[in-house]
Amino acid sequence: MSPKTYHYFVFTYVIPDDITSTCMIAMAAQMNTLFQVQAAAMNMQVTQWLTIPAASIHLFSISGSILTGFVYNAGGARLLGWFLNPSKKGFVHQPTSLQIQGTSIFVGIVLMVISALVEAYRLRAVEEGHTLSVLWLIPQTFLVGVSTNFVYAGSMDFFYTEVSDGMRTVSSAVSLLFLGGGYYLSSTLITIVTDITTRDGSTGWIPSDFNAGHVDYFYWFLASFLTLVLVFFLVYSNFLYSLPRINFLRAQMLPSISIPTY
Known about the structure:
There is one protein chain. With 262 residues, this protein is an all-alpha fold. The protein has one domain (10-186, 224-253): Up-down Bundle (Growth Hormone, Chain: A). The protein has helices spanning 3-13, 15-40, 58-84, 97-127, 138-161, 165-197, 215-240, 244-253. The chain is globular and about 60 Å long. It starts with a helix and ends in a 9-residue tail after the last helix.
């Protein structure tokens, strides 16, 4: 294989995986900040003796990630593989790395929808003079951990099962570049949304005081954004791995691995 063909293979084959990681890391970065500020505007007194500090809300995200890892290795992988591949009988087929990445995007969309609905309900409660409990943030915070786990699990699986030994270093470097880009994408989205929503002199969607803004609109925006990412991911993945050139290159480098399909 010539160096030109080698580099072509690397930078085209890892694009679906890396784009997913970038967008999901951007989403996770947003949630790490917004959920904490949102929790500070809610009732953190759970019981007479238990108060959940705003920063402690991230414990549920960590718990979600750890629990997902345990469940996935305890049989959840085969269950997910059966669900994503209904044509294959039995619980013996594990999901491909691309299917894991696609699952992470879907979970991200679900948690964004839940976040938007909860925030809209919280704003209505504020207008009525009530303060919601911080416990309303637990489901979506938990799903952040689930989605993040699938992102990293999919990437790890990708570079150890779908890429040859000689490509792993280059592919991992490209992946880290895209992961770092996720945090820049997060800052860029905040900047753009804030600039657009404050042009008429209003407080915008994401003001310092969440009670005066509409963070729920931003959550709907992220849900729409991730939906577009999922559509692109599905179309691009199926198209890319149906190309004879890519299949030929993979057959040369990974003769024992079947072509992944979604």
